[in-house]
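Bumping with the actual sequence this time:
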Amino acid sequence: HVQLVESGGGSAQSGGTLRLSCVVSGAQFNWAVGWFREAPGKKREAVAAIDGDGTTDVADSVKGRFSISRDNTQAMSGTILTYLQMNDLEPDDTARYYCAADQLWGRLWVGYPQFGQAKYWGQGTQVTVS
């Protein structure tokens, strides 16, 4: 049974920092994990993703401010920890942030036909920047 649980959201001031965490349990060690965000009235946006081999990609809108990492120390037992480090936050970063996981990178990152169709999603964590 696969579960994704996000944490670390909250309120921050412009220029501030937050670090989101996502615990993926029941996963295969080489799954890709991504972060998406959705703000009221806006389309869901892919923020960053990291593949099982550590390859990463970050959206242009947050490049230079956000970074993604993962901890695979427990991956062989089915648990992947993924972090989204958010620096120099801006009010436009206000959104609900979701973690997603899938065996296919193309379901997590833009430019692929199956983008956005990740099989597993968390409940999200709210980030508010003022």
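The tokens above came from a reply further down the thread. Residues 68 and 84 are 5 Å apart (CA to CA).
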